[in-house]
Amino acid sequence: MCCGDGDCRPLGFLLGLPFAFVSLLLSIIGVIIWIVGLTLTCICPCCLCLTVIVELALELIKAPFHVMEWFTSQIPC
């Protein structure tokens, strides 16, 4: 264990940075889709397909966190 608790994986963090940057760009697109989808859902609540799009946008927003967690868990300390 390098930091005492076993969660220290700086190499995984550094290798994951470029992928996290791409995920960050996707999350910005997700925010835009989320805002538009949420607005359209408020205007016309009968469109159930818009809620699926809003849920997809929320997953895009969370993408950088998922990528960094995955990279840091793959590379041992």
Number of strands: 0
Q: Structural class per helix/strand content? A: mainly alpha
H and E order: HHH
Sheet with the most strands?
none
Mean pLDDT: 75
Uncertain segments are none
What is the general shape? elongated
How large is the share of residues in beta strands?
under 5%
Verbal overview:
With 77 residues, the protein is mainly alpha-helical. The chain has one domain. It contains three helices and no strands. Helix 1 packs antiparallel against helix 2 (48-61) and helix 1 (10-43) runs antiparallel to helix 3. The radius of gyration is 17 Å and the shape is elongated. The mean pLDDT is 75.
Please give the structural blueprint.
Elements lengths: L9 H34 L4 H14 L1 H12 L3
Gist of the model:
With 77 residues, the protein is mainly alpha-helical. The chain has one domain. The protein has helices spanning 10-43, 48-61, 63-74.
List keywords for this structure.
single chain, 77 residues, mainly alpha, 3 helices, elongated
